[in-house]
Design a protein that fits this description.
The structure holds two protein chains of two kinds. Chain A is an alpha/beta fold. Chain A contains ten helices and ten strands. The C terminus of chain A is likely disordered. By secondary structure, chain B is an all-alpha fold. Classes of the chains: A alpha/beta, B mainly alpha.
C-alpha cells in the first residue's frame, strides 16, 4: 500500500506544486489522477520514487518510509516501482531488447550490464513480456524505428520486467491517437489485474480515466478536490477541477466497452503467458 | 512603442524612434572606424612592394615549375609520418577528452563548484595554445621527432573534442535519463544506458572531424622539428629548391583531399 502524508513540494522558483497531499492507494488498485496542466500531477508521481525530492511530508510504500532513504536504499526501492512515461522515454539508439532489459539494471552488476550479459531468466522474461504485448518479433529493432504505440508498449515491458509492486504512469496516452490510447490503457489495466499491481495513472483525458480506472482523484493547483468512483464525475465536479466549461459532452456513458474490445492488438495467442 | 494610434488607426513599425536612431548611430560609427583604420594601415604600407607583388608572385611560380617529380619517392615516408601523427594524436585526444567532457558538462559533473572549473580550465588551456606552439615547446622538452608531434596534436585536440562533447552531453534528452534512473540503476549504469547512447553519434562525428583537421595541422609541425612532411618543406625552403616545394605542396593537397573524403564517408556511415 502506498501512502502520502501531507506531501509538499515547493520548487526553487517558489512555485508551490503540491500543498500537503494526503493519499492512500491500496494494493491492486488502479487510480487515475486527473487535473489541468500545472496541477501537480507529474510532480506528485515523481515525488513517490524521488525523481523529484519532496520538500516535506512522507511517502511510504508498505510501511517503509521512502523520503528518508539513503541513495543506495532508494535504488533498491526504485526497482519495485515501475514507471511509464508520456513520450515513452525509451533510449532511442538502443534496441528494443536493450530497452526492456534496462528494467533489470537495478538487479545486475555494472559489468554484467556493460557487457550486456544479463541472466538467462531476465532474457526469458523479456521475451515473454514482449510476446505479451505483441512485439517479440521486434526485439532487435532500434527503438527509434518503432511507432508511438509500439514504443509505449516497450516502455510498459521495461516497467514490468522490474517486477514492480507499484506502477507510476505519467500521461501514457498524451502522444498517441485515440485508438492506440485505448489499447494502451486497456493493456495497462489488464497487466495490473494479472499481476495484482497498484497503479497511479496521470491522465488528462477524462473519458479514458473513467473507462479504465476504478478510482479517480482530481488534482487542482496542488490540492485534491475530488476522490471517488469514476461515475461520481458530475459536471459540477469537473468544473471544480478544470474550471467552467460545458461538460455534458465529456461525460458520455461509459458502458460501450465491448465496442472497443475487438480492437485488441495481436496479443491473444500470448495471453496466458504473463 | 512600435504600435501607436493615429486617427483611430493603429500604425505599426518594427522599432520605435529612439531605438531606430540608436541603430543608425551605431552603423555610422562602424563605418567611420573602418575608414579611419583603412587610412592608418594605408599610411604604414610601402605601396611600392605591393604594386610589385604580382611580378614577384609570377617569378616564384616560374621557379616552382616544373615540379621535381622524382623527389616524390623520398616523400612517402614523411607523408606516412604525418598521417600517423594526426591519427595517434587524435586517438590520444579523444581518450582523454571523453572523461573530461563528463566532468565539465553541467548535468553529469560530480561537483559544479570544484571539479567543473578544473575541467573547464583544462579545456581552455588546451585550446588556447596552437598545435604549432605545443610542438615548439614539446620539441624543446622531449627532443625533435614524431613523438613530440603526436603529443602536440593530442594536447591541442583534447580541448576541442572535450568542449564539443560536453556541449552534446548538456543537450541530451533528460527524460531518457530519468527513465533509466527510475529503474533503480546506479550511476555508472545510468551513464552507460541513458547518456552514452545519446551522445555516441556526436562523439563519432567530433572524432572524425578533429582527425581531418589534424591531418592539415600535422603537415606544418615539421617546421619546428616535430616530424612529418613539414621537415622536408622546411629543408626545401631553406635550400631555395622551389621545384621541391611545389611537389610537397601538391602532396599535402592530395593528402588533405583524401582525408576530407574519408571523414565525409565515415560521418555519413555513422549518422
Amino acid at each position: 500500500m502506498l501512502r502520502l502524508d501531507t506531501l509538499v513540494k515547493q520548487y526553487k522558483t517558489g512555485d508551490l506544486a503540491l500543498k500537503g497531499i494526503d493519499l492512500e492507494v491500496p494494493d491492486g488498485q488502479v487510480m487515475a489522477l486527473i487535473g489541468p496542466s500545472g496541477a501537480g500531477k507529474s510532480t506528485l508521481i515523481r515525488c513517490v520514487n524521488r525523481l523529484v525530492e519532496p520538500t516535506s511530508g512522507k511517502v511510504s510504500l508498505n510501511d517503509m518510509e521512502l523520503t528518508t532513504l539513503s541513495q543506495g536504499r532508494l535504488r533498491k526501492v526504485r526497482r519495485r516501482i515501475g514507471m511509464i512515461f508520456q513520450e515513452y522515454a525509451l533510449v532511442e539508439r538502443l534496441t528494443v531488447m536493450e530497452n526492456v532489459l534496462t528494467g533489470r539494471l537495478g538487479y545486475v552488476s555494472f559489468w554484467r550490464s556493460y557487457f550486456r550479459k544479463f541472466p538467462q531468466s531476465d532474457i526469458d522474461e523479456a521475451f515473454r513480456l514482449l510476446a505479451r504485448v505483441g512485439l517479440d518479433h521486434m526485439a532487435d529493432k532500434r527503438a527509434d524505428e518503432l511507432s508511438g504505440g509500439q514504443r509505449q508498449r516497450v516502455g510498459i515491458c521495461r516497467a514490468l520486467i522490474q517486477d514492480p509492486e507499484l506502477l507510476l504512469v505519467d500521461e501514457p496516452t498524451a502522444s498517441l491517437d485515440p485508438k492506440t490510447s485505448r489499447q494502451i490503457m486497456r493493456l495497462i489495466r489488464e497487466l495490473c489485474a494479472e499481476r495484482k499491481l497498484s497503479a497511479i495513472i496521470n491522465i488528462h483525458d477524462v473519458l479514458l480515466a473513467q473507462m479504465f480506472a476504478e478510482r479517480i482523484v482530481g488534482l487542482q493547483l496542488g490540492e485534491i478536490v475530488y476522490d471517488g468512483p469514476p461515475d461520481g464525475l458530475t459536471p459540477d465536479v469537473l468544473t471544480q477541477i478544470y474550471g467552467e466549461e460545458d461538460w455534458e459532452a465529456t461525460i458520455e456513458k461509459v458502458d460501450d466497452e465491448d465496442e472497443v474490445e475487438d480492437e485488441l492488438i495481436g496479443v491473444e495467442p500470448a495471453l496466458g503467458s504473463g | 512603442m512600435p504600435v501607436n494610434e493615429k486617427n483611430g488607426l493603429k500604425a505599426w513599425q518594427r522599432r520605435d524612434r529612439n531605438s531606430q536612431l540608436l541603430i543608425w548611430a551605431i552603423q555610422f560609427a562602424a563605418v567611420a572606424i573602418f575608414v579611419y583604420c583603412w587610412q592608418l594601415i594605408s599610411d604604414k604600407t610601402i605601396w611600392m612592394f605591393v604594386t610589385d607583388a604580382p611580378r614577384q608572385a609570377a617569378d616564384m611560380a616560374s621557379r616552382m615549375i616544373p615540379p621535381k617529380w622524382d623527389y616524390l619517392s623520398t616523400l612517402w615516408m614523411p607523408v606516412w609520418d604525418t598521417i600517423t601523427i594526426a591519427t595517434l594524436g587524435t586517438l590520444m585526444a579523444i581518450v582523454m577528452a571523453f572523461p573530461i567532457a563528463f566532468l565539465a558538462a553541467r548535468n553529469t559533473t560530480p561537483s559544479k563548484t570544484f571539479i567543473r572549473p578544473i575541467a573547464l580550465f583544462i579545456i581552455v588551456s588546451s585550446r588556447s595554445i596552437n598545435s604549432l606552439l605545443w610542438a615548439l615547446m614539446l620539441v624543446m622538452v622531449i627532443g625533435p621527432g614524431v613523438f613530440a608531434g603526436v603529443l602536440a596534436i593530442g594536447f591541442r585536440s583534447i580541448g576541442f573534442c572535450a568542449k564539443l562533447l560536453y556541449e552534446a552531453i548538456e543537450e541530451i534528452d533528460e527524460t531518457q535519463v530519468e527513465a533509466v534512473t527510475a529503474t533503480g540503476a546506479n550511476g555508472p549504469q545510468i551513464l552507460n544506458y541513458g547518456i552514452v547512447p545519446q551522445i555516441l553519434p556526436a562523439f563519432a562525428g567530433i572524432s572524425v572531424f578533429r582527425w581531418d583537421i589534424n591531418i592539415r595541422e600535422s603537415t606544418v609541425l615539421g617546421l619546428v622539428g616535430a616530424g612529418g612532411i613539414g621537415l622536408q618543406l622546411n629543408a626545401s625552403i631553406n635550400t631555395v629548391t622551389w621545384t621541391q616545394v611545389s611537389v610537397i605542396l601538391l602532396v599535402i593537397l592530395g593528402t588533405v583531399i583524401v582525408s576530407e573524403w574519408v571523414s565525409a564517408k565515415v560521418r555519413h556511415a555513422i549518422i
